């Protein structure tokens, strides 16, 4: 069975995905911040708990180091953890490293975690990286990477999620020939999760749909070798801002990402 790390596994999509995968005997590494809830999920799934706050890039690196200390390979990395938004809110929050919070957790943390875990993923036979994105998408402002002008939580969320899609395509290109695939997925629209509830927006689609759409990318044999794609639930799709997939945009995003990580000493 596969060894699978799921970030944000203590609640919502991450927890439901873990419970679904556990039924087929996969070995699960469960990341989250709430140790009590993680312990509960571990009790149900038999998974192993890894606690870390992805709002801190140093904690993100420690998470990767903890996984590397305990395992000699990793078959699947599901970057699911994220910070949502309160509809209409302009409250700008800052991460431990001084970055805008949604940028930090939804984008910089999965980029860094993936980078740190690549040696383990390379040791797997055919590893998969699954980045949980969103249909809410907005182009990155390279002149205002920290979103200090005209801020709204919803816009920051959409920027971080489209950046993750763009990064997924870029990383897939760089990993061609390694056997590692990278894909991004919008699981379902406003699933019945705590994140949706906190947004103040009524739930629209069932959590089970999001679980099924994400799981396909985790272990569906029919998707073996498929890489560098964005899926809207079960269908391969194109982002609402297709410019985000252009080589020029991806190059600029990668450069800004390196700078942002460097300011945090990464």
How would you explain this protein's 3D organization?
An 8-stranded mixed β-sheet has the order 3-2-1-4-5-6-7-8, with helices on both faces. It is globular, with a radius of gyration of 17 Å. Helices cover 44% and strands 14% of the residues. Helix 4 links the parallel strand 4 and strand 5. The protein is of the alpha/beta class and 266 residues long. It has 8 helices and 8 strands; from the N terminus they run E-H-E-H-E-H-E-H-E-H-E-H-H-E-E-H.
Average per-residue pLDDT, rounded, comes to 95
First CA to last CA: what distance?
33 Å
Distinct helical segment count = 8
| Strand tally | 8
Query: Main beta sheet: strand number and arrangement?
Result: 8 strands, mixed
CA-based gyration radius? 17 Å
Shape: globular
Question: What is the helix fraction of residues, given as a range?
Answer: 40-55%
Low-confidence stretches: none
Element-level helix/strand string: EHEHEHEHEHEHHEEH
Percentage of residues in strands: 5-15%
Going across the biggest sheet, name each strand in turn.
3-2-1-4-5-6-7-8
Structural class: alpha/beta
